[in-house]
Amino acid sequence: MIGSPRDAGIHVVISAFRPEPDLLAGIAELHGNVDSVIVVDDGSGSSADDVLATIEAAGATVLRLPENSGIAAALNAGIEHARSLGAGHVLTLDQDSRLPAASVAELLAALEQATERGHAAAFAVPEMFASVSQVASRAEDGTLLTRHSIQSGMLVPVTTFEAVGTLRADLFIDLVDTEFELRCTSAGLVGVAAPGVRLPHSLGAAYERPTWLRLVTFGLGPKDVTLSTPFRYYYRVRNRIVVNREFRRTQRAWIARDTLVEVLHFVVAATLARPRRALWRLYRAAISDARAGRMGRASEASMQDAAGIRWATPRVQRLDDAPLVEG
């Protein structure tokens, strides 16, 4: 087994957009325990100058994209920089994720152990992302196999990128990690989870489940419903159609289940949106763009529609809204 993350050539890539000063805490935790920390600013503009200068002074490499190009493009820029430095592995993180340095070694150990057991491991992720398990099944040898892995906290050998490519930049945001995992699976590679490792993270805003929804589900399920920021529904719908088109023949069961779950969620979101017609316009734009192959950033008209949408149910507090840094 490799003794430390530095021995494995691990470079951390963090995507950032209008970063807050508390990003420094996460970088300080990792600094000295990995080969480098690379922060890619995704077109924040001059408003981020002071924070990024402080981050650079703390020892991180800062790359600045001239315009907002999406999380996949930002991570890809960092991945390519890490590869130019001779990286053996890349660990990707969101700007609001905090992964203790000790967990990096555990991710590496899980990856190595899976390989030693004969698994063609594409990447390793924490067992828990916030309160959600990333484990789909346990192999007979005890290896934890994943599905629906989140890219934040994902440790990827450079050989995986060489085999399947980097992240799909034209998706911009949403389903970027899903598409990457599906590509790995189609290539015969598997994701593995590091037992006991948890990445603290916010899962999004939680809202009270309305009475009609509780009645429809016979009182089953959680007491709240997680809703994305409205503009994300454009990307979720468009990218779901695009990903389905790409993998519907090779990963039929996976695509069918995910599509059913998402469509049900889109219906719930549409009933809770105010004004509803604005979210329906967003859905129609997403469907039209997916069919026409219009990718990348959403149009200004769609972003304006999204900006006027509110959710007609009270927001609730839950444990996932707690501070992200664990003691």
UniProtKB/TrEMBL annotation:
Pathways per UniProt = Cell wall biogenesis; cell wall polysaccharide biosynthesis
Keyword annotations from UniProtKB, A to Z: Glycosyltransferase, Transferase
- The keyword DNA-binding is assigned to this record: no
Q: Which SUPFAM superfamilies match?
A: Nucleotide-diphospho-sugar transferases
**Sorted alphabetically, which InterPro entries does this protein's record hold?**
Glyco_trans_2-like (IPR001173), Nucleotide-diphossugar_trans (IPR029044)
Per its UniProt record, what PANTHER family does this chain match? GALACTOFURANOSYLTRANSFERASE GLFT2 (PTHR43179:SF12), RHAMNOSYLTRANSFERASE WBBL (PTHR43179)
Tagged with keyword Glycosyltransferase: yes
Similarity-based family: Belongs to the glycosyltransferase 2 family.
Q: What is this protein called?
A: Glycosyltransferase 2-like domain-containing protein
Q: Where is the signal peptide?
A: none
Q: Give the Glycosyltransferase 2-like domain ranges.
A: 12-114
The superkingdom listed in its UniProt entry is Bacteria
